[in-house]
Write a structure and sequence with these properties.
Number of domains: 2
Number of strands: 16
Helix content: 40-55%
Shape: rod-shaped
Radius of gyration: 58 Å
Number of helices: 14
Strand content: 15-25%
Amino acid sequence: MTRPAKNSGVRWRGLLLQLFGITVLPLTVLTLVIAFGSFTIHQRAMRALVGQRDERAARSIAGALGEQLEGRKAAVRSLAQHAASGASPANILAASDFVLHDFDGGVAFYSPDGARLAVTPGNNANQPEILPTSALSTTPNPWLTDLLRRAGPEPVISPAFAVPPTGELYVLAAASAGNGPIAVGAFSATALARRSLADVFTPSEQASAFVADATSQVIYQAGSLVLSENISKHPGLSNALQGQSGATYVPTATGEHVVAFSPIAPTGWALVVEEQWEAVTSPMLRNTEITPLVLVPALLLALVALWFGARQVVRPLQMLEAKATDLAWGQFEAIEQPVGGIAEIRRLQAELIHMAHKVRAAQESLRDYIGAITQGQEEERRRLARELHDDTLQSLIALNQRIQLAQLALADSPAAGSLAEIQTLMEQTMSDLRRFTRALRPIYLEDLGLVAALEMLTREVGQADNLRVEFHRAGSERRLTPEVELALYRMAQEALSNAARHAQAAHISLTIAFATQAVTMTIADDGQGFQVPASPAEFAPQGHFGLLGLHERAELIGAHLDIQSSPGQGAQVTVQLPTSKSAAQ
């Protein structure tokens, strides 16, 4: 009987599957999910925290800038109110040193027609005069005339304009009270924004902040990030210019940036703060991000332990299992090959080898006993066949002749019919007795050889059971030892009997092939089939005594027995005998 093919290497089943699939893998996956899940939650929390921090910082800086602008507006309002009370503009400026330090571009009074009445110079002696003697002059201040026209009790502020030679941006704040002189103060918007943003970032931070006016003109930028050329498209700028505050996240080539924005209400300016939020966390917090990597060595150790278990425990056990299966099929040499592994497995194999020796000795004794029984059985069959042929059958032949003589003597008697019936029964009995005798002692086998005996056997089975039984021969016929021929004949007899009586087959074929290496006999049928037991040890418990007999006869002559069948697919019995064990002596 053919055994299932064995897979090489470690098979992923049994203990290995339990170790990896039920213990190591779930625990590792769970730990990794928890670790990296915590890392992801930590990252999201840090991201939101930096966004909230930058949003609050942007609002705070924008509020501080707005308060300073409101202070300058209040200062020019106060100067205009003093001038409206009739005081001399020059005296007012002389007595207002406490407010003049906020206007680094100078403070002046202008008449409604644009003539300058009094002025204090700016703090920078290298720059041109920002407040000219006449409002009609547009150098370097292009907004003075328009500002004087719009000035009223509520101070107004001009757009930012560049002053050579540095190009620093300045703005004007103007206010008037009634028909009195108009107070105008000039201050550097760049310097104001610089002072507000001076301590926001350190030089090493990957961050930037800038203040821009309504025309997207950058008044001042602090930080190390480089702004795009088209500043009007910068994230958050348009929102801040529309009076909105908030924070957004922008993906870049260097990582995700958080952009916070806030309006500067008194001037309609916008403040935008941008930084790479991953760089904000402290080195200690960044170190915690790599904590899940500690699990990598743990996973590697688990895999090493699993590999060790597979190599030293699981694989040796699987090899030992395969060898034990070979042992169950009578391959005693297979169990002798070492499988390695841990000491317990080696001791187990040693016990199996010891047991195999005992089983082999018992099996050899049993085979000798079965051989003796089989030989005695065949001897008894021959003796019985000879007695039936020489005594019983001859007596029946003599009785049949007496009946024939009685028929001749009583040809006209009414008893002639009864004698005819007796003669018919006698001939049928003689025919059955001859078939029974041939079954007990295949005379064709002794006289004509195995091929002729098998061909006659198939013919008798087909006639007796009304089946289509075919016989085929391949190769050049040669005589085998009497023991081998008798064993093959009995095996064919058993297989044909099983197919005819139990398989409910409609067609049976018997083929014997003579080759150089072996003699092969095959019996196949198209019957209902059956589930072949896993090993010969299960033949008797499952009631397959005929298969057990086939297996024992094959063992006695050193042949290989292969039984292939499945429910509904018929059956095929193949007996292959090596030439070295089949040649006649």
